[in-house]
Amino acid sequence: MTSDEPAIGAVDWGGTWIRAAMVAGDRIVHSERAARPPALPQQYEVVADLMRRCAAAVGRPPAAIGVGIAGIVQRGLVVSALNLGINSPTDVAGGIRSAAEVAGGISSAAEVAGGISSAAGVAGGVGSAAEVVGGVGSAAGGVGSAAGGVGDVAGVPIFVVNDLQATAIGVAGRWPDGLTAVMSMGTGVGGAVLDRGRLLAGEGAAGDFGHIPVQPDGPSCPCGGAGCLEMLVSGRVLSEVARQLGDTGRSPFLTARLSGGRPLHAGDLQDATDAGDEAAIAALERAAATFAAGLRTIVATVDPARILLAGALLAEDAAFGRMVRLRWEAARPFWCRTPLIHVPDDVDAALRGAASFAASFGSNIRPANGREM
Ligand SMILES: [Zn+2]
């Protein structure tokens, strides 16, 4: 990256890993990751430390930090992130900032020159005199302050966004015109709506397509609803279907595969479908029809220029992805021309999207999510 190119910090805060990166334009310049510790205060410290390491590695502080987190975010507060131990509205940005401040100026120029990213700093102000100087600079200087040290992230503005929304911003970058809906399927189902690349989050959770009701008398959902899309079609549900078809002998293909000893998952259901197994085909057809009903709701709500399908199960060459495409041709409103576009798996999309969210905030993003500037 060039010396005058702004670098934006990005964090992808998931249930298993916390990743951080420095992003310039749409390029990840440096990234770090760590396993997520169980307690929230330690998670703040890990985020601050990873971000500091990234800043030190590229030799400058981030101009802003975007945090994609596996939870529901409303107006900058994480109102629920059950996998991370958050069940009441929490100022995550404030938590990260405090952890960065407690660490004491985080990393001084001397530290950066030595390539050390201070584990000691995280441990709590036990650093050198140089670190203390960095700390003073951080309190006084804020972003880009020479006195703050290049690894200083304590005074940097932080913007928080749902991780699937961050991913959606990341994958939708290639379609800068019109309305884009992103539907992603992994363990659960998520998504987002973007207007010319800007996230439209409403009060925070717009585009959370996993909770489109598709069967009012269906299974109850942790959101409090019943028959939500992700309770009927998701990686988790399709894996469960694969196990049932194998266990009960209804699918000879899956029953045979059970003898391999490992638990069956959604990929096995697709393999069975490709092999012509009738029970698997029927199950996946049902799932595709349910998924297409969800797509119809998206079209009825925002009539986007395109719907991007993300996630391995929705890939162009995956059995489920193919079935969804066929179903959509049959199920879409007659006036609707919305194409489904498969987007390849991209592990860095959440980081790029979080950075993009932070970078655009206050200039061209609608004040729907994160903190207003
Ligand atoms: Zn739900």
TrEMBL record:
Gene3D superfamilies with a match to the protein in the record: 3.30.420.40
Pfam families in UniProt: ROK (PF00480)
Protein name (record): ROK family protein
Coiled coil: none
Classification via InterPro entries: ATPase_NBD, ROK, ROK_cs
Domain of life: Bacteria
Similarity field: Belongs to the ROK (NagC/XylR) family.
PROSITE patterns: ROK (PS01125)
Taxonomic path: Bacteria, Bacillati, Actinomycetota, Actinomycetes, Micromonosporales
